[in-house]
Here is the input.
Amino acid sequence: MLSEESQDSPKVHESPKVNESPKVHESPKVYESPKVHESPKVHDSPTVYESFDEMKLDDNLVRGIYSYGFEKPSKIQQIAIVPMSKHTDILAQSQSGTGKTGAFTIGSLSVVNPNIKSPQILIICPTRELSQQTTNVVTSLGHYMNVKVLSATGGNRLQNDISTLRSGVQCVVGTPGRIFDLIRRGDLSVEHMKYVILDEADQMLEDLFSDQIKAILDSNFPTSTRLALFSATMPPNVIEIAENYLNNPVRILLPPDEVTLKGIKQYYVELEREDWKLPVLLDLYQQIAVNQALIYVNKRQKAEWLAKQLSSHGFTLEYIHGEMEVGERKKRMDDFRSGSVRVLISTDLLARGIDVQQVSLVVNYELPTQRENYVHRIGRSGRYGKKGVAINLISGDEKNMLKDIEKHYSTTVDELPENLDVIGA
Here is the structure.
């Protein structure tokens, strides 16, 4: 089949023509930024802290920050940490790879009392992988505070989570289903909860998770519990939903034209036929030297099919999707993080939040069905200001989808040049 597809298929440069909840309650307003569509300013009178030392954080927390390797706060950290340390609701948007996890972790740890051996921080993530990654960050940053952390996700034995909770933890990081189950059963006490944090909040509030999230937020939290919502994208409809849960929040919101990622070069190759994408992808990989790459598709079946095709051409790669058994997903993710696997094919399971520093190239074999996931996908390269490249293989209706992405985010996706040396992946 592959040879039949290839017989009349172009090489990459022959045909890229493009052509209700407990309001989680009153809090002091530290400052407030304009709504997302008003202005590119982060907020009207920003208080920006250029160093962690200026933030007047607990000495043991600062030790953890520097031991983790943070030297200077990123932009979102300069703005968001102190309002959280003052125990304020927050609605924060910042581009992928700019330190959001560090911002809400440091901010929430700043209000933890290590002497209380009960959950005080609840961080909810959309995937097991992101939950585990966040758990590692919290554990490292809270090391000198002796903060104990539980990663509560599907795939873990429920009894193990219950035992860990009974032994005394101050922070719980997990996925919606397991968190909801632990609260419903009465095993996860919310009596001392100071912060509930939704990571990738837009996905949580309007996706498959929305009913579970609403049920969690309807739990009997103390009136002093605060809510923090973080994401790289905050569509207006999600902001509207979020306002139902937030009280007097600090808002850090970017207009759409500031959401796409500086430092990531974006290109497209337009093809007349879908089945020309595979030979073009093979041609690309013969011409571009990359450290590690992520290839995105939309469905499990396409991930498995593409992995089989590329493997038959001598690629060492793995694929991953949400229906895969948890242990196997973990092994494949560990292989990719360690660099023993350089190419990973993924569905949107890995579009959000996963931080692998060596990823320099993202290929959208198919454009995402949700516009916001485009930003999350290409944000897997160019982490923390490093240079990255995104290449979109488009055919059929994807041409119009890409135009919509360009218009919405006020960005330009260029035609892939003849000389691939200039893209510097």
In short: Residues 171 and 298 are 33 Å apart (CA to CA). Residues 1-44 have pLDDT under 50 and may be disordered. Residues 128-141 form the longest helix (14 residues). The radius of gyration is 22 Å.
